[in-house]
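Tip: read the tokens left to right.
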């Protein structure tokens, strides 16, 4: 029982940035925050790493050489490291063994897609016309690599020639572009709203907002740059869209909310409607952020360009609640117009953010 308790606590710590409920709002930093679980070294060897400070043993299993098992050593900071030699180029499945229990890599880029999800009751799947959900890869000139996004197109898009408006919808810290169409049920919610005549036909682009950076907050400006330089141009080159400010909107939750602020506030002529869900400027560094973006100076441009600027929270139990209230104070002092809503009293959770999407999507592009 003691071993299981230790494993549970270890896994919880290792996975903490996967859970949107944590989202780096008040958690004490750990080596796991910037840990890269698999590194290809200059000599061709592979270095495996996992943060498991309470573990007694760590190993790795999968498509790896059986005759030369990887040996792990625990560092003083609780990070276990193991070096794998002799792998040829290619793709390899792997998982960690922590105290003899198989553990999926919580830091893998696709780790958010490995979480188990169950549906209670009817859920969101109804007998209505359904849109298409596509995985698309694009070249990020900002990051110098291929990146993935999910794109929802409404039912009937393939038969139509009409150009549509676009909502860019960003997930939270530790998740990826599969989170909104997965546990966020975005496709199902949009299908239902469209079938009920509550939303106008639109395209919804769900990019990957997670970027490896030395500073957890360092990914925010990188993503903002990627949105402007690569994501929006890719969408407008490959989909029938109305490529103007009036027909673009952006929304993001938690870390994605910070990325939304970064992108929309610094480029106020890009979007007409902006939602910031369970988020703020920069937890613990809000004054510094406000000064960096020169909020008082850009306030007139925000008021002039944003048809709607909406901040939401999941009630006082939302772990971003106090940070958001502080941010709203800065907006008020700068004279920035905004709306504030609590569409669900479910804290910092997907229950809240699914409700946000269901309530706010009908307000777009009217």
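Filled-in amino acids:
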């Amino acid at each position: 029982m003691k071993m299981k308790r230790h494993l549970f606590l270890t896994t919880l710590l290792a996975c903490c940035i996967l859970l949107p409920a944590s989202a780096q709002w008040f958690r004490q930093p750990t080596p796991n925050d910037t840990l890269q679980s698999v590194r290809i070294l200059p000599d061709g060897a592979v270095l495996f790493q996992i943060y498991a400070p309470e573990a007694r043993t760590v190993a790795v299993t999968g498509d790896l050489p059986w005759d030369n098992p990887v040996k792990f050593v625990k560092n003083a900071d609780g990070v276990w490291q193991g070096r794998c030699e002799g792998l040829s180029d290619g793709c390899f499945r792997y998982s960690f063994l922590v105290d003899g229990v198989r553990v999926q890599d919580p830091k893998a880029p696709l780790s958010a897609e490995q979480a188990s999800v169950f549906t209670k009751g009817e859920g969101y799947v109804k007998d209505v016309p359904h849109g298409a959900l596509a995985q698309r890869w694009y070249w990020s000139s900002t990051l110098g690599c291929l990146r993935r996004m999910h794109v929802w197109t409404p039912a009937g898009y393939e038969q139509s020639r009409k150009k549509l408006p676009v909502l860019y919808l960003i997930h939270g810290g530790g998740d990826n572009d599969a989170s909104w169409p997965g546990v966020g049920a975005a496709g199902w919610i949009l299908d239902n709203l469209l079938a009920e005549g509550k939303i106008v036909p639109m395209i919804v682009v769900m990019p990957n907002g997670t970027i490896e950076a030395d500073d957890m907050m360092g990914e925010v400006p990188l993503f903002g740059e990627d949105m402007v330089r690569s994501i929006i141009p890719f969408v407008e080159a490959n989909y029938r869209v109305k490529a103007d400010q009036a027909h673009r909107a952006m929304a993001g939750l938690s870390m994605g909310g910070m990325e939304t602020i970064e992108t929309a506030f610094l480029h106020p002529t890009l979007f007409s409607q902006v939602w910031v869900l369970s988020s703020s400027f920069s937890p613990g560094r809000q004054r510094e952020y406000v000064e960096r973006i020169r909020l008082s100076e850009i306030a007139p441009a925000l008021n002039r360009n944003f048809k709607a600027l909406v901040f939401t929270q999941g009630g006082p139990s939302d772990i971003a609640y106090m940070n958001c209230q502080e941010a709203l104070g800065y907006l008020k002092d700068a004279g920035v117009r905004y709306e504030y809503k609590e569409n669900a009293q479910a804290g910092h959770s997907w229950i809240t953010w699914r409700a946000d999407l269901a309530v706010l999507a009908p307000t777009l592009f009217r």
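The chain has two domains: 2-108, 132-363. Helices lie at 2-14, 186-195, 219-238, 255-266, 286-293, 295-305, 321-334, 350-360.
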